[in-house]
Amino acid sequence: MWAFKPKPDRFLSFFTSGKRIIITNAFEKKCQKLPPAEKEKTEKCRAIMKPV
């Protein structure tokens, strides 16, 4: 999982086969730690997009 960080926003993403970047969700940064709900959203999308 990777994050693009144009202030004050965060875009969570991951890489797939074929050098593609999938941006799963975005949120406004309000604290130092990554909110668990945002991380879960990205991990669910990653599991769905998992190559066969």
Question: Can you offer a commentary on this structure?
Answer:
There is one protein chain. The model has no long low-confidence stretch (mean pLDDT 84). A hairpin with a 3-residue loop joins strand 2 (9-16) and strand 3. This protein has one helix at 36-48, and strands spanning 2-4, 9-16, 20-28. It has a 3-stranded antiparallel beta sheet with strand order 1-2-3, with helices on one face. The longest helix is centred in the last third of the chain and has 13 residues, at 36-48. It is of the alpha+beta class and 52 residues long. The protein has 1 helix and 3 strands; from the N terminus they run E-E-E-H. The chain is globular.
Rounded to the nearest angstrom, the radius of gyration is 11 Å
Quick check: average pLDDT? 84
**Strand runs, count:** 3
Order of helices and strands: EEEH
Broad structural category: alpha+beta
Main beta sheet: 3 strands, antiparallel
Count of helical stretches: 1
Query: What spatial form do the alpha-carbon principal axes imply?
Result: globular
**Strand arrangement, major sheet:** 1-2-3
Poorly predicted spans: none
Query: Helical proportion?
Result: 25-40%
What is the CA-CA span between the terminal residues?
Answer: 19 Å
The portion of residues forming beta strands comes to 35-45%
